[in-house]
Amino acid sequence: MKQIVKTYLRELPIGAIGYIVGYDKIFKGYQGKLLTMGLTPGTQFIVVRQASKNWPIILEIRGTLIKLTQPEADALCIEEAE
Predict the structure, then answer these.
(1) With 36 labelled, which of 1, 20, 43, 80 sits at a CA distance of 20 to 30 A?
(2) HSE value, Cβ hemisphere, 13 Å, CA-based, for 56
């Protein structure tokens, strides 16, 4: 049986490409907001800017830049493209 290890957006380098595979149950309250932002399972993204103390994570999705706070980013279950 394969063990699933959660990957966080904050672990990916700038320029990394990944896919949204779902939402973390612990952060379920963010699911509705993420869905309205177009962050649905299967969506491909590119990391444009990583989070720091004063800046959010910025992703490019379908040609649009999306800004995520740390809790919003942690609510996403992602997979890095190989």
Answers:
(1) 80
(2) 12
Torsion sign across C-alpha atoms 38, 11, 81, 17: positive
Helix then strand count (H, E) for the chain reads 2, 5
Assess contact for 59 and 66: CB atoms under 8 A.
yes
Residue 27 has pLDDT above 90, yes or no: no
Domains assigned to the chain: 9-80 (2.30.30.90)
* Contact assessment for residue 75 and residue 30, using Cβ atoms and an 8 Å cutoff: yes
Helix, strand, coil shares of the chain as percentages rounded to 5? 25, 35, 40
pTM of the model: 0.82
Mean local confidence (pLDDT), 17-43: 87
- Calculated CA dihedral for residues 41, 10, 49, 77, nearest 10 degrees: 0
